[in-house]
C-alpha cells in the first residue's frame, strides 16, 4: 500500500515547527532570528489556519501607564495564572502590537489617530485593539508574509507520526507526506509544537490536539486539561464565530424577550450564564461608518445563511473555542516531563501548550496576544538551544520510520470496527454533554471508562490508498482525541473544586 521509506537523503534542520497558526509562524521567525535553520511542517494546506484564527482582537496596554491592571484583570478571570508569565506577556503587549503594525497590520483608529481600543468582557478599561472582524486572519497573513520574506521553507500536507527521542532528548520526527503516502524521518535538534489546540473534542469544526498528543506519547506532561475557554457568539449550528469587537461598535446580544445581555468576567463564565437562554446578535444599530470593519462577517453570513447582518438578528449560542490546557511548559516554552525536568529539545507554544497565561479561563483579547508571545518565546529558546548542540539519532530515526510504516499498514488492514465518523461523534457527544459549561463530579470516572473503551475499539477504514488518504488522517486525529479526552476528564476528576471554566454541579 504505502510508497515506502525515504531515508537515503534524510532532511536535517536545527528547528522544526509543527503547526500553521499565529504561534507557529511567530516561532519560526524567532528561531531564524536566533541563528537556527528552520522549517515549518503543516498538516493542512495554505491558508487553512485562517478559518481557525481568533478575530476578537489583541489586548494591549496602550492607554495605561503600565501593564499592571492588564495583568490583574488576567489573573481575576484566570484564577490561577502563572504570575511570571502573565506579567511578562502583558508588559510585552504594546511592543507586540507595534511590531505587527510595523509589518502591516491595519488597526481601527480613533479620532486622534491612535488605535481604537475596544471594551470587552473582563477588562476594566478599553484595552483590545482590533482590525474589525479580521484581526486574527490579518495577523496570520502578515506573519506568513514575514516568513516568506525570510525564506523560511514551509511544507504542507505533512503529518508528524512520531516524535523520536533518545534518553529524553529530541532527535527528530517521522512524518507522513499526505499527498504521496511517503513516510520519512526528519532530523532536528529542536521541535516546536504549535498547533490549533484540541477544541475538536467538543466541536466538529475544531482541532484534534494532535500536536499535544504527540508530545504526550513521548513522555511530556500535560497540564490544565480540565479547562477550556468558551465563546458566546457562534452562529447556531454552524461552527462560525463572530468577533466580540462588534459589540463595542454598537451591536447587542439580546434574549428572546428583547432584554439586553451584559457580558462580564471571563468568557466561559459569561457563556455559562447564557447556556439556558435563546439569544441573538442584533447589529442593526451599528453605525454605517463602522460597518466596513465587519464586512467579512456580513458577507460570510449572507453567503452561508442568506441573512443580512445589518437588517436582521442572528441566532447565536455559546461554544468551546479556546484550548487552555496542553503540553506543560516552563517560562522558556520547554516541554516538561516533570516539574523540574524538560524533554530536551522539545518546545510547545500557543494552543498546544499550557503556557500559564490564561489560568482557568480566557480574558478576551489575550488569546492572540499569547499566541504571538509564546510563539516568539519558544522560537527564541529553541533556536538558541539548537545552535549550541549537535544532531544525533540517525539510526533511531530510521528504525522509528519502519515502526511507523508498520503501524500505518496495520491500521489500513482493519476490516471490522467503528468508523472514524462514529468514533469522533461519540467522543464529542461525551465531552459536550458531560465536560461542557458544567460538570457532574460523580460521573467523571464512568466517563474515563467510556473513553478507555472507545480507545480499545478498532477503527475501520474504507480507503486503503496511500495517496491523499484523508480518512487515515482522520483516524490518526481520533486517536489523539482519545488521548486528550482521557487526560481532560482525569484532570477534571482530580480537581475537586470549581475554578474558572471548570464548574462542578
The radius of gyration is 22 Å
* Number of E strands: 19
Please name the CATH architecture of the domain at 397-494. Up-down Bundle
Broad CATH class of the domain at 397-494: Mainly Alpha
| Low-pLDDT regions | none
- Count the helices. How many? 14
Terminal CA distance reads 50 Å
CATH topology call of the domain at 397-494: Methane Monooxygenase Hydroxylase, Chain G, domain 1
Tertiary shape: globular
CATH superfamily descriptor of the domain at 397-494 = Fumarate reductase/succinate dehydrogenase flavoprotein-like, C-terminal domain
* Largest β-sheet summary: 8 strands, mixed
Helix content: 25-40%
Structural class: alpha/beta
Percent strand: 15-25%
The chain-level mean pLDDT equals 94
What this model shows, in words?
By secondary structure, the protein is of the alpha/beta class. Among the domains are: 234-320, Succinate dehydrogenase/fumarate reductase flavoprotein, catalytic domain (Flavocytochrome C3, Chain A, domain 1), CATH 3.90.700.10; 397-494, Fumarate reductase/succinate dehydrogenase flavoprotein-like, C-terminal domain (Methane Monooxygenase Hydroxylase, Chain G, domain 1, Up-down Bundle). It is built from 14 helices and 19 strands. The strands form four sheets. Strands 1, 2, 6, 7, 8, 9, 17 and 18 form an eight-stranded mixed beta sheet that branches. Helix 12 (420-434) runs parallel beside helix 14 and helix 13 (444-456) packs antiparallel against helix 14 (470-494). The chain is globular, with a radius of gyration of 22 Å.
Amino acid at each position: 500500500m504505502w510508497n515506502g521509506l525515504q531515508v537515503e537523503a534524510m532532511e536535517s534542520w536545527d528547528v522544526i515547527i509543527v503547526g500553521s497558526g499565529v504561534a507557529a509562524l511567530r516561532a519560526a521567525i524567532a528561531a531564524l532570528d536566533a541563528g537556527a535553520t528552520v522549517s515549518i511542517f503543516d498538516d493542512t494546506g495554505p491558508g487553512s489556519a485562517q478559518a481557525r484564527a481568533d478575530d476578537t482582537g489583541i489586548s494591549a496596554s496602550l492607554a495605561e501607564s503600565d501593564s499592571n491592571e492588564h495583568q490583574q484583570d488576567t489573573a481575576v478571570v484566570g484564577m490561577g495564572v502563572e504570575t511570571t508569565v502573565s506579567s511578562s506577556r502583558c508588559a510585552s503587549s504594546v511592543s507586540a502590537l507595534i511590531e505587527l503594525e510595523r509589518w502591516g497590520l491595519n488597526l481601527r483608529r480613533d479620532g486622534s489617530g491612535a488605535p481604537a481600543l475596544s471594551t470587552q468582557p473582563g477588562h476594566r478599561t478599553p484595552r483590545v485593539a482590533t482590525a474589525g472582524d479580521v484581526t486574527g486572519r490579518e495577523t496570520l497573513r502578515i506573519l506568513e508574509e514575514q516568513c516568506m520574506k525570510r525564506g523560511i521553507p514551509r511544507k504542507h500536507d505533512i503529518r508528524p507520526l512520531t516524535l523520536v527521542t533518545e534518553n529524553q532528548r529530541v532527535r527528530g520526527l517521522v512524518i507522513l507526506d499526505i499527498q504521496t503516502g511517503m513516510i520519512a524521518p526528519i532530523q532536528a535538534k529542536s521541535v516546536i509544537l504549535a498547533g490549533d489546540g484540541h477544541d475538536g473534542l467538543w466541536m466538529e469544526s475544531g482541532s484534534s490536539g494532535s500536536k499535544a498528543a504527540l508530545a504526550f506519547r513521548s513522555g511530556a506532561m500535560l497540564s490544565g486539561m480540565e479547562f477550556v475557554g468558551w465563546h458566546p457568539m457562534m452562529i447556531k449550528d454552524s461552527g462560525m464565530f463572530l468577533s466580540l469587537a462588534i459589540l463595542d461598535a454598537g451591536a447587542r446580544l439580546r434574549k428572546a424577550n428583547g432584554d439586553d445581555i451584559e457580558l462580564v468576567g471571563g468568557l466561559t463564565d459569561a457563556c455559562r450564564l447564557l447556556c439556558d437562554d435563546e439569544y441573538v446578535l442584533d447589529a442593526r444599530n451599528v453605525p454605517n461608518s463602522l460597518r466596513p470593519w465587519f464586512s467579512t462577517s456580513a458577507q460570510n453570513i449572507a453567503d452561508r445563511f442568506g441573512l443580512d447582518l445589518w437588517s436582521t438578528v442572528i441566532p447565536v449560542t455559546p461554544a468551546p473555542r479556546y484550548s487552555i490546557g496542553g503540553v506543560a511548559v516552563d517560562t522558556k516554552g520547554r516541554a516538561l516531563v516533570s516539574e523540574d525536568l524538560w524533554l530536551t529539545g522539545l518546545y510547545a507554544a500557543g494552543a498546544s501548550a499550557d503556557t500559564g497565561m490564561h489560568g482557568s479561563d480566557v480574558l478576551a483579547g489575550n488569546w492572540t496576544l499569547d499566541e504571538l508571545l509564546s510563539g516568539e518565546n519558544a522560537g527564541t529558546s529553541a533556536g538558541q538551544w539548537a545552535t549550541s548542540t549537535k544532531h544525533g539519532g540517525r539510526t533511531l530515526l530510521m528504525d522509528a520510520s519502519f515502526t511507523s510504516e508498520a503501524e500505518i499498514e496495520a491500521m489500513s488492514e482493519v476490516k471490522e470496527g467503528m468508523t472514524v465518523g462514529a468514533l469522533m461523534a461519540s467522543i464529542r457527544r461525551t465531552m459536550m454533554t458531560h465536560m461542557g459549561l458544567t460538570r457532574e463530579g460523580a460521573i467523571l470516572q464512568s466517563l474515563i471508562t467510556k473513553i478507555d473503551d472507545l480507545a480499545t475499539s478498532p477503527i475501520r477504514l474504507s480507503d486503503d490508498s496511500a495517496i491523499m488518504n484523508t480518512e487515515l488522517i482522520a483516524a490518526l486525529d481520533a486517536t489523539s482525541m482519545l488521548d486528550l479526552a482521557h487526560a481532560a476528564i482525569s484532570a477534571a476528576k482530580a480537581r475537586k473544586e470549581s475554578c474558572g471554566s471548570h464548574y462542578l454541579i
